[in-house]
Amino acid sequence: MLCGALIRSKLLARNSVEMQQQIMEILLNAGKKRSYLSFISTMFFSEFIIQLDIESIKNVWPIVEKEIGKPWSEQTLDTFYMLLILRDKHPSLVNHKFLKQHLDMTEIITKESIEDIVRLLTVCIYQDLSIFPVYFYPNKYSC
Description:
The protein is an all-alpha fold and about 140 residues long. The protein contains seven helices and no strands.
């Protein structure tokens, strides 16, 4: 909850790089270790990412890249949502080269990725999927 308070108050975005990195690690680790924290850690993570400009996000990019830079077989609903947020907010980081390197395609949503996306959307640990934001994410991608 402290991590969320720092993010929502926008204090973390103005804090030191070390503190930002530490909070990102705490959020990501909490989401991995406790399934009931996965959703909220992803929401706080995405709120923080939205607050950062391109120069600021470069400070935490190694942590973020390690989390989302995975092949489709290792993606989760959380990392998929983070990819969408990052692609929209920071397209220079989640660019064609990044996507090709990690997903073996140059866009997130393509005809070729539909099977993987369906798998993510249907094999899920959340009890109430209707609240997960990826289902409400603007459909600006076309196949």
